[in-house]
Design a protein that fits this description.
CATH class: Alpha Beta
Number of domains: 1
Largest sheet: 7 strands, antiparallel
Strand order of the largest sheet: 1-7-6-5-4-3-2
Strand content: 35-45%
Distance between the termini: 78 Å
CATH architecture: 2-Layer Sandwich
Shape: elongated
Order of helices and strands: HEHHHEEEEEEH
Helix content: 25-40%
Number of helices: 5
CATH topology: Alpha-D-Glucose-1,6-Bisphosphate, Chain A, domain 4
CATH superfamily: START domain
Structural class: alpha+beta
Radius of gyration: 20 Å
């Protein structure tokens, strides 16, 4: 019986330590990547504000080209929603909604993940003219993992997890948009 009490005490102490540590760990993360596209900023922005165009450059669409997609609202306008449903675990099930557009500059999205986990994250795309035919595009995610689950951020590097996908998507976007000018 003493042995079981010791194990129970150690288990409770371990859980308590984790809960205390989680109090001091940041519960937010931010990942952003940038690419330069040799196209005028207005053309790049007009392409990007239509969520259906993400099917051409999104790394998650590449992971499951057979995912089920559905839409509601008017693409390229606030309130447009793109839903996806995939059996591929890295893709899962969820929806993305355009929540704000600053014409020619920025598009803000709300991502609502349903499976394999539930979460809401903010995403954005920023375009910035850096010359007559050059546009800097920044694609980013800002997320939050609430207490006590934020302890996972000690062991999970969101930059390593999301960064390569964002870079892949931006490189694909660059190829698509620069091919248009040829």
């Amino acid at each position: 019986m003493k042995f079981l009490k010791k194990i129970l005490f150690i288990l409770i102490a371990f859980i308590a330590l984790g809960l205390i540590m989680a109090l001091f760990i940041d519960d937010t993360y931010s990942v952003k990547k940038t690419v330069i596209i040799e196209r005028p900023s207005d053309e790049v922005f007009e392409y990007l504000k239509n969520l259906k165009n993400q099917e051409e450059y999104s790394p998650w669409t590449q992971k499951d080209p057979d995912m089920k997609k559905s839409y509601s609202g008017t693409d390229g306008e606030v309130g447009f929603i793109s839903k996806w449903d995939s059996d591929v675990e890295d893709v899962g099930k969820g929806e993305q909604e355009i929540i704000k557009i600053d014409n020619g500059k920025r598009i803000d999205f709300m991502l609502r993940f349903k499976e394999p986990f539930e979460a809401e994250d903010n995403a954005y795309i920023i375009t910035e003219s850096i010359g007559e035919n050059k546009t800097k595009v920044t694609w980013g995610f800002d997320g939050e993992i609430g207490y006590p689950w934020n302890i996972k951020l000690l062991f999970m590097n969101m930059e390593e997890k999301l960064g390569p996908d964002l870079e892949n998507g931006l490189e694909q976007l660059k190829k698509i948009l620069e091919k248009v000018k040829e």
